Amino acid sequence: MFEFIRTHQRLMQFFLMIFLAPLFVLGGLQVGHFGETATEVAKVGDKVISQQELDYAVREQGPQAAATPGIKKEVLDQLISERALNIEATHERMVPDAADIQAFVLKNFPELADPSLSKEVRAQRYADLARGQGMTIGALEAKIVRFLVQQRTSGEIQSTAFAPKTVAVRIADLVEQEREVQQIAFKTADFTSQVKITDDMLKSYYNKNLAQFQVPEHAKIEYVVLSADNLAQLATISDADAEKFYKENQKRFTVDEQRRASHILIKAGKTASDAAKAAAKEKAEKLLAQVRKNPAEFAKLAKENSEDEGSAAKGGDLDFFAKGMMVKPFQDAVDKLKVGEISDVVQSDYGYHVIMLTGVKPADVKPFADVKAEIVTELKKQAGTKKLSELRESFTNTVFEQADSLKPAIDKLGDKAQLKIETVASVTRKPDPNLAPTVAYNNQKFLTALFADDSIKKKQNTEAIEVTPGILISGRVVEYKVAEQKPFEEVKAIVRDAVTQDEAKTLAQKAADDKVAALKAKDDAAGFSDAQTISRAKQAGFNPAVLQSLMKADATKLPAFTQIEVPGVGYSVFRINKVSQPAAPNPASTTAMQQQLTRVVAQQEMLAYVEALKAKAKVKILRPDAITTPVTDSGEGDSK
After folding, report:
1. Which of 371, 356, 378 is nearest to 297 (CA)?
2. Helix (H) or strand (E) holding 551
3. Are 617 and 177 in contact (CB under 8 A)?
4. Who contacts 65 (Cβ-Cβ below 8 Å, separation ≥6)?
5. DSSP one-letter code for 316
6. pTM surpassing 0.70?
7. Cα Rg for the chain, rounded, in angstroms?
8. pLDDT over threshold 50, residue 419
């Protein structure tokens, strides 16, 4: 019960405030991330989805999501569906209450369910849980509400979904069906020597595939980055400054007193009857008498009698814990003990404890030498942030007012910030997925400004753009190239290879077709590989697409012959010799299949239900352009 306690140190004041008063907004995602004046993208009933909310949801998909084609449309549709569900849930009184959310949290996050933890410790763990997912407590609670609404709704639909057993039996039989096959391969590579290429064939392929032979729009750019991290490296922190910080923040470097105890718990919770409590107390008092008579037997008696599953196996040992980590009656009793002393019977919300104090670690302050490097790093970071604030306005004004060059910014701030002009070629309008998102110029907001008309035509500096907190960048186009078609002669060799492959593949396909026709006219097993047994569960090394085609091939008359494309290789002709079916339906497979089919039916019904709710809510897309505008790192949507 106490096994998690020793890993936590500081406490918060409130435990799962959601248990006291719901902090979520029934409208769904409106949990404090977005302002009331946000640009409206869509309306679901009387609920609004803002540009900021949409951009936030896109960024939640991952660092490369913004560059994924169609991602905004998909995310917006998901937000609309969730909003429509929440509206219906509110109308039908299906919105989860505080007890529902509490049950969900304790079931899915067992580290919060330990009954021995104080409310403050639980609150700390809950806050850490939210923070670990990059959320506030309110945002996490809203996410839980959203999930529970969908789960409850889908559960209602799931309970009515039905898949006939006869269908499940038939599909289960197909899944378990085995086929004995042989093959002859017709590889594309084996036919390349037979290909005859003409210039007309090459030019025809080139003209039909012009997009393959284009150089995309790109630019060579210069840019300058003003970074708090770089400024931090320039900061000099003296020993005196570090020692001053150490003395002014002694509490931060102090390790509080920790106590180690063992206990025997006889459970009797709040809801236990008076008789049960009396019996538990009587048993605890008998155990107290035994351990006082022979303290050396404490661990043995704890193993045999304690009802704290977490510590009983360890002789009741709870290891070291800081003040406040235990429930108050337990903590108060421990604080009064000396090492080796045993408490009276202590009652808590969990029952009756017999406690022995086994060790004390006095409060201690970490030596300055041990924390000096940590202090210097923090002071440098503070200095870098402060310096960035001091230089921000000057940097912003310089790149804007002297917009035809970045050199004035270097001349003005170079010594203070060690700025330098960086150059990079082949930059495009979209972030390069092969570069880390942290590369300053590989940022959609910056690239949008860089490829604006004024920047391209006049080669002027962009404004100073904060691509991430603490990093400002300004750049300019040095050379710009429009998308251009590569001339035929330049790519002729590439075209020849492509045409050769296409023609060789056609020859391989024809050879395979001819072989199938010959085999259907007269069966001949010559040239085939050794027989292999395959099934949908037994791939035998076949490409999944080939396996699927083989299992679907008509085998009503055996031997059966079929020609199948083998991706990246060519074609193969297969001889199906035998089809084996289970002697009787496998009950386990049939049950599993029926469950899967029921889930599929439920999913389809759920989709249909959500579409009906969206129609009922009279969804309006207020800004169609919102699903095509870039997502900026600042979280602000573009408006037109």
Report:
1. 356
2. helix 544-552
3. no
4. 58, 59, 71, 631
5. T
6. no
7. 35
8. yes
